[in-house]
Input
Amino acid sequence: MTKTVKNITINALDTRLDVSGSHDELKELAETFNSMLDRIQRSYEQQNQFVSDASHELRTPIAVIQGYANLLDRWGKNDQSVLEESVGSIKTEAENMKELIEKLLFLARGDKGVQKIDMEKFPLNELIDEIIKETKLIDAGHDITTNHCESISIYADRKLIKEALRVFVDNSIKYTPQGGKIIINCYSLKSEAVLTIQDTGVGIPKGDLPYIFNRFYRADKSRTKQTGGTGLGLAIARWIILKHNGTIEVESTVNEGTRIIIFLPL
Output
């Protein structure tokens, strides 16, 4: 056992102690150690995947900015149309990078346990009315409304809860065709506040549902360029809800729509 443990390195995390011939307290120790190695290996693989995905996401905007900068350097400075197109694209990609980095920093602070949470009591129904009003100002192509929103107050970080709800609403907008409906409701159930965001969008395939809250995961890879986004929004929303001792359920049918159900302590 000692020899095996000494030989375990970051490059050989799949090594495990042999417990087949043990039937005493050493077997229990070995099983506990193997279980710990399983957790370490999963965390290490997740970290590697996270770094790889983040690098991939940053590579595209950097390449676009570099391409337009080279274009301007060669001859674009003297062509007004090329100049305007280049500057516009560089600004857009820089904004995309800024958004991605801010989300990565948010998740990093969350992982380290240093993300600030300011708890206060506030009316949840008023927050939903605010989100609906703001969304209508920036999106006139969907019917965004509520048909049942009780007067409920919760003790939470208002800013973070709003950010989480915005993620779900923005996703509904992205994946719901023009003219579709998005309904946001809230009500109390026993000791919990229940929020629902329901849309008439394209839905999520059943096989993708278990993974939609994973960082950088996109259920519909073919629509990535069309819909934009970093694949981090749902991961951030889930972190916020879990930090408030809440839970999330997702119901979805392809070509019919998706329903997000959020439970928060009253």
User: Anything to note?
Assistant: The helical segments are 2-7, 25-74, 80-112, 124-138, 158-174, 224-227, 233-243. The CA atoms of residues 38 and 54 lie 24 Å apart. The chain is about 50% helix and 15% strand. The domain at 1-115 is CATH 1.10.287.130 (Helix Hairpins).
